[in-house]
UniProtKB/TrEMBL annotation, chain A:
It comes from Klenkia brasiliensis. This is Branched-chain amino acid transport system permease protein. Belongs to the binding-protein-dependent transport system permease family. LivHM subfamily. One of its GO terms (molecular function) is transmembrane transporter activity. The chain crosses the membrane at residues 12-29, 34-53, 59-81, 133-157, 187-206, 212-231, 238-256, 262-283. It comes from the Bacteria.
TrEMBL record, chain B:
Keywords: Signal. It comes from Klenkia brasiliensis. SUPFAM superfamilies: Periplasmic binding protein-like I (SSF53822). InterPro entries: Leu-bd, Peripla_BP_I. This is ABC-type branched-chain amino acid transport system, substrate-binding protein. Residues 1-26 form the signal peptide. Belongs to the leucine-binding protein family. The keyword Amino-acid biosynthesis does not apply. The keyword Signal applies. Residues 47-393 form the Leucine-binding protein domain. Coiled coil: none annotated. Gene3D superfamilies: 3.40.50.2300.
Automatic annotation (TrEMBL), chain C:
Residues 6-244, 269-517 form the ABC transporter domain. This is Branched-chain amino acid transport system ATP-binding protein. The keyword Transport applies. The lineage of its organism: Bacteria, Bacillati, Actinomycetota, Actinomycetes, Geodermatophilales. Keywords: Amino-acid transport, ATP-binding, Nucleotide-binding, Transport. It holds the Pfam family BCA_ABC_TP_C.
Amino acid sequence: MSYFLEQVLNGLSYGLVLSLIAAGFAIVFTSTGVLNFAHGSVVLLGAYLVAVLHDTIGFWPAVLVGLAGAAVVGVAINALLVRNLADPNPGTAAILMLGVDIVLLTELTRRIGNQVLTLGAPWGASVVRLGDVTLPTGRVLAAGVTVVAFGALWYLFSRTDLGVGMRAAAADGPTASLMGIRLSRTAATGWALAGILAAVAGIFLTSFPAPGVAPTVALSAFAAIPAWVLGGFDSVPGAVVGGLLIGLTSALVTGYEAELEPFLGSGFGEVAPYVVMIVVLLVRPSGLLGSKEAVRV
Amino acid sequence: MKHRVRAATLAAAALALAACSTTAPTASGGGGGDDVRTGNGVTADGITIGMITDLSGPFAAGAAVQVTETQAYWDQVNADGGICDRDVTVDVQDHGYDPQRAVTLYRSMAPDVVALQQVLGGPTSAAVLPLAEQDSVYVGGVGWAGSALAYENNQLPGASNAIQAANAIDYMVDELDVPEGSTVGVVYFTGDYGGDALAGAEHAAEERGLQILAQEITPATTDLSAQASALAQADVAGVVLAAAPTQLASLAGVLSSQGADVPIIGMNPTFNPSLLTTPAADALLANAYSMTSVSPYDNPDSPGVQAANELYASADPTGATGWEVPLAYVQAELLRQALEGACESGDLTPEGVVAAFRDGGEVDTEGVLPDGLDYSQVGQSPTTTVFVSKVSADAEAGLELLDQVSGPSAESFSYGG
Amino acid sequence: MSPPLLSVEHLDVVYDGTITALSDVSLVVEPGQVVAVLGSNGAGKTSLLRAVSRSLQPYGGTVTGGTVRFAGEDLAGTDAADVVRRGLVQVPEGRRIFRDLTVAENLRAGGYTVKDAKARAEARDRVFDLFPILAERRDQPGGLLSGGQQQMLAMGRALMVSPQLLLLDEPSLGLAPLLVDQIGEIVTEINQQGTAVLLIEQNAVMGLRVADAAYVLETGRVTAAGTAAELAASDEVQERYLGVAVPVVATSVVEAEPAIPTAEPPQQLRVEGLTVRFGGITALSEVSFTVEPGTVHALIGPNGAGKSTLVNVLGGAYRATEGAVHYGDAELTALRSDKVAGLGVARTFQNISLALEDTVEDNLLVGRHRLMRRGLLPGALRLPGARREEREHRETVAGIAELLGIAHLLRTPVHTLAYGDRKRVEMGRALAARPSLLLLDEPVAGMTHGESQDMAETIRQVRRDLGLSIVLVEHDMPFVMGLAEQVTVLDFGKKIAEGTPAQVQRDPEVLRAYLGAAAA
């Protein structure tokens, strides 16, 4: 039983980290209509900045720089590239983002080399024991920080002018600008938020139980794509639910691989998130919480 | 990245002139001035070999170390008189870990090289190997997956992944007190590399009376909490890991945090010295071993490894050290011996080079690879001997060589049988 | 003398660098005034508002000449957000409320530029006083409001910045007469609270009733201007926009032999006990009626009566929860929408859905798709058979365009067309499939009286020349009365009356539910 509980908690905490990334996808998508395939390298960038700076300026200042750096890069991608796109259709923007991803990732890979850079996180490899259940401290912290982050997002989007303005701009940009809402500002805010969320996720994805910053971390963002899609492309709560579902699924399928192998074959844990995504989309084509507009009949 | 050294040109030309006086040039080949048959990539005074590697993709950093070492090696060979009185030029090309590009590069290079010292990467070499086999072009290091053994033109630098994994199981039973009847975990990358290792481990487990708990992962799996929990739950007595450094550190760290104090033995590329700066360092120092086909960096008893390291230190004094240094050295060394063999048998053509390394003659790498390598049997690992190292803070590049072993189940393992 | 609140002088607006939307338009709004701009669709009314609110750019429009001054200051170089901060707010056409945001959040977005919490709270209270229903439904998503309530929310949202000048773009569009009256009263009340209003209307009755002064805009130029009373009295305005000079008479059913027969003769359409539920909401409840072959049958009812739901069931887009629809021997309700088209049923949409970049001809050819026998390959290879077939299709399409009066526009891209012409193109696309039953969903929504008279004539002609059945969904009562042989009236998803136009017009139930205050 404690094993089951441990896998569940592991899955949920990992799922929360995925949901940070998925929420970033969703926020950029709603605020600028861009499928941000460069998100993975922004995740890596945030963690990389912390890894190279923690020695000289200390871990927490490095975290601030990491978050800020990821936010600035997001804003810059939007301001320099997305906004100047001659043909502003989603397909072109998505391909542009793939290009940005390759450039960023190649540069980061070159800098990281074949090293595994440690993050210098103060929680190190410590663990928290609750009865029989052992959880890495980093994971417990990740869950806490993620919950706080989503609380802050909820507050922003439902209780502040900026957040309501962002939602209005996402729903209908031209109309929102008739209310005096500057679309360039809401878009920049969206990209900055996504960058910050990505960096937070990057930090937790590269600290214990993961060893450190290696280029493969950028691939973790792809693990968040099913979470984003099944939550509904444009829904932050959907991203949270999607992340939890994906995290839980992969933890349980992997944790019970020995028992499941006769039916599913080995290595199903890697495929399971996509299977879940496809099943969800078959039942609900717009995702779990994606906008099926509130329509009056 | 073309690099040409003409140090011995004069001497070679003089020799060629002398040879010229006694023999007529052969009809085939590039019109060499001696009695050696030549073909693609060989002229009267030069030999071109190729290296298709990853200078812009995920393995760029390690590949750069290998390129540096390779250049330094051939520079030295040229300085010592070259091969068959010819200077050797290395044509280095970058596939960026893209199989399509690797194939394109191979096609454009094949007419101009006598052999490929390396095609780096699993999917990339898998794309190139069959083409090179049709052309009878020697291909050196492509990793250690058993699938590459089926190609006559491929020279594996040491024992295959299955042999490493089988040895890992043998070593656990014989030296690390893993009792008969216990369960051992195998965590492996999906694909040739991981699959081959799993096959070796399964064979050995059956021989030695162990159970296997296999867990497949991908390179994107950087957090092995779920896998580690499952292993701890199954109360494994040891783990064989066929993955990359990130996975080794994560697995070791999580297993130790869950109180599973068991040995973890990684295959060839699973250790990297930078892991010792991560929070998993203690766990690695306590439990991690490496089972490699090539000697680790720190091996004072091997003249070959010493030569390799010195060569690298002089070529790039500030470069990253690690197992790539002896690996690149020994790949160049294997190719040099094949080229010299071809020269001696008077057939310095691509086919001649393949025939030369397959002729069953003595291969001596001065301890970089195990002694007694046998390349005469296509489809089987050239050796059953591997190097066992333990992660150590004191050893250079983090690995302390413990032993060379050839376990019973590694010896009884046979491909296709 | 203080400058006028808004003064537009010699304004020229061009879209995509080539299409002129406005030329040499001048207009003045004094503080406290309500000014109406009348004109048919495509006259440039919306472009005028966008030029004033600095929101042309997202639509590809630019001001190429003239000036717009607000409170004496030239607005050149400002953007939409700037003018809002100066007290000039536009309510866009079609309401455009944020459907997923609650009513309160919609208002909050409207007050985005008001940073003073007290000023904002006061503005919100004023909005709630003006529209008590919004206070009542403040926590519901905007998308759940009715059409009239959405219009109120759109206006309330604009009032959140306590503007000096409110720009209203077609506030009565698509609303039933009762609601139009109500919106008119609200505009007057807003004005009495001190806000000047620039109102754009195709409903000239409503526009002239609330306005102090008015302008008539035609194809981008001002053709008449004056006080509301002067314009209301002018013959031209009366005839074109008020429909006064053209008495609505029910035309007799034309029994002439159709000139161009349909591919298949029309059949009887029987709707039997049709019920449609979405979740817990019943959109249609046990509706039955019969459309005889070759007749025009109208479905009327106020907004939200279930008319569009019914058309969607007939077109195969929605499933029936209970009941059945038969067309001849076939049961429509058992078929997918593509199969429904195969039976000879074609439809138009309430909101025009055309390929805007393509020419009229290409859009019409899309309607032929079902009838194209030769596959893509012969077409791509331009084999003789395919070429002959293509020529036939083009001839058919040209004939339909001729019938609809859009033959001269065949080579024109749709996006340059005026609204009324687009409606015709959409009808033409449906007709191109040579249906035996045509479903028209609000064919005259958003048209002036004159335009809808033209449309009525076109529909008559289509029925006469093509000999098909037409099911017409409308809430414009006079339009339907002169056109249909049979009328079915829906209200709240139920059939409340049925009969000839004359019978229905006298039915007290219909007068009460549908015509509302106008009938009282």
